[in-house]
């Protein structure tokens, strides 16, 4: 039986090569798209899955403003955790970011990713220990835990345990070597405990949000109790004490400082990758919306492929009507015919999946580059998902065509009456409308996405970063050293003067912030007793704002010709000025961290973080005005002449590696390119939409071409009669194409609400966004109509040129 079915299947493939190819290719592309999305989903979902405590370990997040969330916590909770929190199994203060630093062993140097954490770090992230023991490591700041990869880079095949490493300021003994079992929110190469020492120095600083905090709960359901107790302690030790010192009520103190009571949130390791309130860990957070977009669009394409397959299968069934009739006469039951056609679908889908896996394997390097990942095809979970895709595709693509064919009435089909019921025709027409709707969704959606990304990428940012190189600057200093602040400034000024002498360098300056990622320093200031304004601290050197072509609204820039500009002068941006509610700010004084600073200028708003985010209030002052601000500068900005930039960069590198930093490699980036990465993920979404749009149109045209061919083939006798009766070609073309135009319009109308609603939700990610106009819908409709007419009219025109006698000679 299977041999007979196989022979029949091969026979029909041979007679319908083109349509079989289109069917298999359409299904393969649809399945490949879903496989790509599945690989991405598996990777994002795998973060922290290896960790047995992922449901019990929480990171503390502090809400310090209306929309301001920090993945950090105040220091002094530690003594209370030990005695007043029975719900806790453990806690760990740590730096939830990496510091790239140099480790030296003998004559070998390696740049590695450091994390500083308390001893209990391994209780929160129980990495696999391959050498040594966690019992004797991270007890103080004299020992070190190394990842196996870092150990191999530094020691090769030598046993690292007990060996001494040098980080430039101290000696560190290797206490253990670990590997990370899977994707992890923290994946450092080196772990050192310098936290305990810093905690002692900050034990009374209830406003110090400098540390990440992990809490391990005995029962995850107790997190609300822990949060309530933390908020109460914060209120008592910060708000109440500060208000008492000023002789006012806690409510008045909060209002005066423009803040609300600090709120805490606890999010578990299980949810933190895709559902974090803010960036919490060094490995970043996943883009949950982008993941849903990938899954949703991939499912849409697979639905389109399946609908396409079903349409073609039911249309092709007419050609096999006599075969079915003969088989029924010979005794084949309805179930046998259903099994036969399901068997053919199984073979087709199996071959499509194999082809789709080939497409994925060949395209995976480009896909990884697109996502910035290292996805591979393997794993029991993935194979089970492939089986599930296989079964679902067979169910939806195979069952209806099989039942449809099995219901042919034997006597009618043997007499030549192949017509089916109106229900079958209507169902096929509905599926064709669905195809047009999906195609409309992608065409309109891709145009809207393109408009938004074009708007973002061409928007006036308020500064110009072309030809300005941001050179990474290791601003090393030992704050325990006497006069270290003066040494930091002297080193910077020396570098600035020497860089200025290099041919092609037009200007050198620095700022304690980074374009595209903002800065980490915020402070509140008040004006005329107003509520506290939490602003970004923009410590700058002279000429920094002018070099970046940041514009003044009124007043003047900082200048070295006026001594007070390094003592008590400041500028504010337009956002801060609006919050001050002052029409004439020049010369007015504000209270900034108990310092009286005079406003000398108002800077026009510019996009520090990215054009998709709000412009925050900012204050600008010379780095000497706040003497610790220069320590936050991690970039030296160099304006380069456009004539010979590569030669200038080469000279800068030569000077840098010889005189500035002999340990760290020279690293720079042009500000405009660096800034463009702030919206790179949205550019990727645009490119993804464009690619999928092309694929969807291709699949839809495949189906439309085949379906139109079958439909017109069935009407060849009608066309021959019309031609005999004198019908002109344009009349025939109109008659043959009008139903597809109607389906095109109905599909387009069906897509209107989904595309408007979903794209409007996507645009909500942008503070600065376009309004959805009627243009994308007009362009989408005419593009769809144009493609439809090209396919249908080309097939219809060929039909009007047939030999009439061929179809009428037996009548």
Q: How would you describe what is shown here?
A:
The model is unreliable at 418-423 (pLDDT under 50). It is elongated and about 105 Å long. It is of the alpha+beta class and 811 residues long. The strands form 4 sheets. Strands 4, 5, 6, 7, 8, 9 and 10 form a 7-stranded mixed β-sheet that branches. A 6-stranded mixed barrel has the order 15-16-21-18-20-19. A hairpin with a 4-residue loop joins strand 8 and strand 9 (171-179). Helix 12 (334-371) packs antiparallel against helix 13 (380-406) and helix 15 packs across helix 23. It is built from 25 helices and 23 strands. The chain has 3 domains: 1-47 and 290-420, no CATH class; 57-275, no CATH class; 475-663, no CATH class.
Annotation keywords:
811 residues, alpha+beta, 51% helix, 16% strand, single chain, 6-stranded mixed β-barrel, 7-stranded mixed β-sheet
Task: Give the SSE map.
Blueprint: H1 2-15, H2 17-45, E1 57-63, E2 69-70, H3 78-84, E3 88-94, E4 99-105, E5 108-116, H4 121-124, E6 128-132, E7 143-147, H5 148-155, E8 164-166, E9 171-179, E10 190-192, H6 195-201, E11 212-217, H7 223-246, H8 250-256, E12 263-268, H9 272-275, H10 288-317, H11 321-329, H12 334-371, H13 380-406, H14 410-414, H15 422-458, E13 468-472, H16 484-500, E14 505-510, E15 522-526, E16 533-540, H17 544-547, E17 552-555, E18 569-573, H18 574-580, E19 589-592, E20 595-603, E21 618-622, E22 635-640, H19 645-660, E23 668-670, H20 671-676, H21 680-714, H22 716-724, H23 729-763, H24 775-800, H25 804-808
Helix pairs in contact: 2-10, 2-12, 2-13, 2-21, 7-8, 10-13, 10-15, 10-21, 12-13, 15-21, 15-23, 15-24, 21-24, 23-24
């Amino acid at each position: 039986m299977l041999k007979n079915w196989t022979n029949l299947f091969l026979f029909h493939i041979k007679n319908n090569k083109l349509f079989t190819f289109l069917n298999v290719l359409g299904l393969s592309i649809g399945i490949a798209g879903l496989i790509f999305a599945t690989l991405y989903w598996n990777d994002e979902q795998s973060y922290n899955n290896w960790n047995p405590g992922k449901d019990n370990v929480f990171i503390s997040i502090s809400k310090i403003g209306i929309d301001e969330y920090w993945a950090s916590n105040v220091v002094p909770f530690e003594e209370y955790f030990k005695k007043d929190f029975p719900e806790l199994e453990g806690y760990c203060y740590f730096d939830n970011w990496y510091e790239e630093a140099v480790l030296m062993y003998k004559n070998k140097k390696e740049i590695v990713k450091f994390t500083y954490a308390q001893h209990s770090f391994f209780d929160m992230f129980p990495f696999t220990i391959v050498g040594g023991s966690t019992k004797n490591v991270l007890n103080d700041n004299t020992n070190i835990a190394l990842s196996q990869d870092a150990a191999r880079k530094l020691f090769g095949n030598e046993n690292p345990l007990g060996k001494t490493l040098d980080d430039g300021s101290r000696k560190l003994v290797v206490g253990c070597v670990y590997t990370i079992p899977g994707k992890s929110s923290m994946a450092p190469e080196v772990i050192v405990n310098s936290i305990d020492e810093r905690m002692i120095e900050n034990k009374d600083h209830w406003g110090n949000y400098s540390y990440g905090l992990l809490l391990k709960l005995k029962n995850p359901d107790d997190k609300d109790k822990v949060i309530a107790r933390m908020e109460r302690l914060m209120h008592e030790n910060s708000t109440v004490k500060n208000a008492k010192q000023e002789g006012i009520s806690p409510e008045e103190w909060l209002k005066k400082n423009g803040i609300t009571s600090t709120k805490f949130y606890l999010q578990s390791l299980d949810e933190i990758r895709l559902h974090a309130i803010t960036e919490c860990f060094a490995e970043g957070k996943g883009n949950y919306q982008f993941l849903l977009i990938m899954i949703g669009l991939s499912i849409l394409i697979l639905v389109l492929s399946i609908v396409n397959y079903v349409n073609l299968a039911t249309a092709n069934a007419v050609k096999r009507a006599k075969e079915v009739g003969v088989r029924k006469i010979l005794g084949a039951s309805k179930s046998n015919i259903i099994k036969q056609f399901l068997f053919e679908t199984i073979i087709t889908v199996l071959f499509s999946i194999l082809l789709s896996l080939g497409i994925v394997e060949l395209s995976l390097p480009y896909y990884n580059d697109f996502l910035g990942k290292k996805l591979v095809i393997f794993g029991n979970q993935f194979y089970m998902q492939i089986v599930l895709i296989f079964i679902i595709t067979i169910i939806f693509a195979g069952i209806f065509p099989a039942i449809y064919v099995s219901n042919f009435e034997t006597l009618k089909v043997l007499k030549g009456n192949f017509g089916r019921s109106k229900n079958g025709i209507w169902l096929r027409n509905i599926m064709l409308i669905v195809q047009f709707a999906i195609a409309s969704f992608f065409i309109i959606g891709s145009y809207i996405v393109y408009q938004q990304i074009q708007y973002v990428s061409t928007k006036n940012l308020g500064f110009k970063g072309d030809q300005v190189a941001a050179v990474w600057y290791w601003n090393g200093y030992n704050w325990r050293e006497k006069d270290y602040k003066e040494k930091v400034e002297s080193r910077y000024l020396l570098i600035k003067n020497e860089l200025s002498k290099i041919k092609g360098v037009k200007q050198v300056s620095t700022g304690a912030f980074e374009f595209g990622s903002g800065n980490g320093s915020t402070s509140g200031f008040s004006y005329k007793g107003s509520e506290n304004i939490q602003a970004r601290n923009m410590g700058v050197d002279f000429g920094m704002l002018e070099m970046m072509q940041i514009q003044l609204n009124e007043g003047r820039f900082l200048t070295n010709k006026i001594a007070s500009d390094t003592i008590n002068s400041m500028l504010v941006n337009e956002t801060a000025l609006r919050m001050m509610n002052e029409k004439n700010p020049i010369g007015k004084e504000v209270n900034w961290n108990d310092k009286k600073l005079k406003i000398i200028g108002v800077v026009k708003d510019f996009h520090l973080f990215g054009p998709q985010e709000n412009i925050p209030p900012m204050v600008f002052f010379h780095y000497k005005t706040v003497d610790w601000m220069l320590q936050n500068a991690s970039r030296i900005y160099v304006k380069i002449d456009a004539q010979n930039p590569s030669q200038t960069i080469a000279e800068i590198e030569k000077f840098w590696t010889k005189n500035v930093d002999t340990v760290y490699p020279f690293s720079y980036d042009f500000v405009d390119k660096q800034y463009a990465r702030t919206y790179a993920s949205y550019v990727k979404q645009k490119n993804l939409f464009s690619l999928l749009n092309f694929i969807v149109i291709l699949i839809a045209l495949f189906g439309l071409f085949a379906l139109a061919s079958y439909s017109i083939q069935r009407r060849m006798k009608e066309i021959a009669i019309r031609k005999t009766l004198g019908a002109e070609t344009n009349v025939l073309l109109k008659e043959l194409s009008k139903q597809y135009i109607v389906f095109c319009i109905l599909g387009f109308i069906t897509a209107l609400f989904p595309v408007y609603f979903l794209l409007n939700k996507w645009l909500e990610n942008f503070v600065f966004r376009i309004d959805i106009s009627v243009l994308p819908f007009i362009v989408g409709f005419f593009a769809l109509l144009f493609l439809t007419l090209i396919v249908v009219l080309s097939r219809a025109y060929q039909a009007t040129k047939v030999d009439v006698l061929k179809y009428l000679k037996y009548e």
